[in-house]
Amino acid sequence: MTKIFAHRGSSGTHPENTITAFKEAVRLGVDGIELDIQLTKDGELVVIHDYTLDRTTDGTGKILDYTVEELKAFDAGSKFSPEFAGETIPTFREVLALLQDTNIELNIEIKKPVKEDTGIEEKMIQELEKYQYSNRSIISSFNHDSLKRVISINKDLECAILYMKKFENPWEYAAEIGAKALHTYRPETDREMVTEAQHKGFPVRVFTINKAEDMTKFFETKVAAIFTDYPEKAMKLLKEV
Length: 241
Ligand code: G3P
Ligand code: CA
What we know:
This protein is α/β, with parallel strands linked by helices. It has one domain (about 5-50, about 90-240): Phosphatidylinositol (PI) phosphodiesterase (TIM Barrel, Alpha-Beta Barrel), CATH 3.20.20.190. It has nine helices and nine strands. The protein has helices at about 20-30, 70, 90-100, 120-130, 145-155, 170-175, 190-200, 210-220, 230-240, and strands at about 5, 30-40, 45, 105-110, 135-140, 160-165, 180-185, 205, 225-230. Bound molecules: SN-glycerol-3-phosphate and calcium ion. Calcium ion (CA) binds near residues 34 and 109.
């Protein structure tokens, strides 16, 4: 059965990557939650997608230029809707504490805008261990060097390559770097590849599936999971397939 991952929380109905979006996903009983992590200026892990504050908060400028305390002063809810005024950018720790007593899987996408070593991977792994979330987590990134670093620290963590353009035999490349799953872009994902990859033991999870027709198509393709901004809709549709 295809799993439903709430993409950035229940981000179609709640402000993305906020505690209220994650609580809504928990309330719905999703299989998993996807979120994005970044480092702050003072080396804390926060949950936010963009490298800048501008699109989702009332702040401006780069995440990396602010301390966690400074970031906490920004409103991360009002731009989505005034009813969510007062939501803040969560720390990774806050989300782990929220999910600790659930059985929800977590897909942590590492957003790393620089090439040099920042220590983000070590910090993430420490937090996962502290909250006993390591065996319920999938680590993904478009930055495959970052995944390699995660694997070099703990090869038992499930890492998934994120990529946009399809290419031949992606499972071979994944295996080369020690990744165990493929997170693929919807328009570049076809049934043949999914079947072969999963037959070879590489789960395929597809982003970001928001239309009912696409949900049904990928449920029928039997992908391991879809990422969606509308998990409630997806969960209802899945019951009908
Ligand atoms: O992890 C799946 C998806 O979230 C990757 O793209 O841009 O939404 O972070 P993006
Ligand atoms: Ca993401």
